[in-house]
Amino acid sequence: MKLSGMSIKQELSEATLDRIRTICRSHNAELIDYSLRGRQRSLVLELFIDSPDSVTHELCEQISRQIEVVLDTDPTLEGLSRLDVSSPGVERPLLYPWQYPKHCGRSFVVRTNDGTENRGILRDVRSDAIVLDSEEGLIEIPFTAIASSRVELEW
Question: For 100-151, CATH number?
Fold first, then answer.
């Protein structure tokens, strides 16, 4: 289940995205987002992946090697000069329920579908909801009500 409010860009063909997703899943990872930038003959493709486990340098390297073969067959990417595969980083929104457990104990900002913004410490992840420890007490937020959420970095 993907949470509402986020969608992958359509700059790559759906066939290419499907092949990239298949490769990521074969490594117990998911394509979270991507960025395609630059000009013809100097395109840079950045793929952001996540996993229920950690995203290591080795995992990114393995996925990158397999994806390079796929990209060589995509005529829209003839000018690709660089492929980067990395974790999404904590500043990116979480899109899937399986992404939450590894962030228990961290501060979160969660915006619900009705526009309410909730801040608190992620205390629990249930099958259908998260539990935030906020200034108002414990708040249970169903995944279906989450428009966006991200880890809030504490400085």
Answer: 2.30.30.100
